[in-house]
Amino acid sequence: MTDNRIAVVTGATSGIGKEIARGLVRDGFRVGIVGRGQVRGDDTRAELEAEAPGARVDSFLADLSSRAEVRGLAGAVRERYGRLDVLVNNAGVHNLRAKVSVDGFDRMVATNHLGPFLLTNLLLGLLKRSAPARIVVVASEAHRQNDLRDDVAGLAEPASYGPLGSLRVYGRTKLLNILFTQELAERLAGTGVVVNAVCPGMVATGLTREFPAARRLLPALSRTPVLRTPAQGARMALRLALDPAYAETSGGFYSSTPGGGLLPAAAKTRDAALRRAVWERSSQLAGLPAR
Question: Which stretch is the leader sequence (predicted)?
Answer without folding.
Answer: none
